[in-house]
Amino acid sequence: MLNDKLKGFNIILASASPRRHAFLKELQLDFEIQLKPVEEIYPNELKREQITDFLAKLKAEPFLENLQKNDILITSDTIVCLGDKAIGKPKDEADAVNMIKALSNKTHEVVTSICFTQKTEQLIVNTSTKVTFKPLTDDEIHHYVNHYKPLDKAGAYGIQEWIGAIGITSIEGSYNNVVGLPTHLLYKTLNTIADSN
Q1: What is the pTM of this model?
Q2: Which of 11, 26, 159, 167 is the most exposed place for a label (fewest CB within 10 A)?
């Protein structure tokens, strides 16, 4: 399938996320992981997918001068949006508790951008998923944060964890996007890149 189409390419995933690693393996893609630190700061006037587009592109910048002709670099960024307010990763457990309290009994959106960078071109795609939480009790929120330590997750929760099982009442859009990567979009875009080369 797709991996056969991409035989002449070297796929580089610039992410430390075990969830994103697992998704690429599930798509049966051969890839390598390369990490370069980036300070994830964006202009204040940006909203929603403008933020994730900007950060996904920013994460590609340290790799640009060393990319080879057959490399496809994949960088991505995910944020949680409550209205127009962007919620990133919590600073500490108290911040995580406050983030989940803000999401309780509301619908928010999980927005992800994926940036595909080659030596001579760059393509950014994005998508969003609506997620609704039931009213969460303080005990439920503290139990989750204490046991699951969701400090590496946008919005301070993982849909695939306990809080998702007990707290999420509806989801509209890609479930995998909420976990960490919209795999349908990754698959579609890599097919397009393969077909155009």
Answers
A1: 0.93
A2: 26
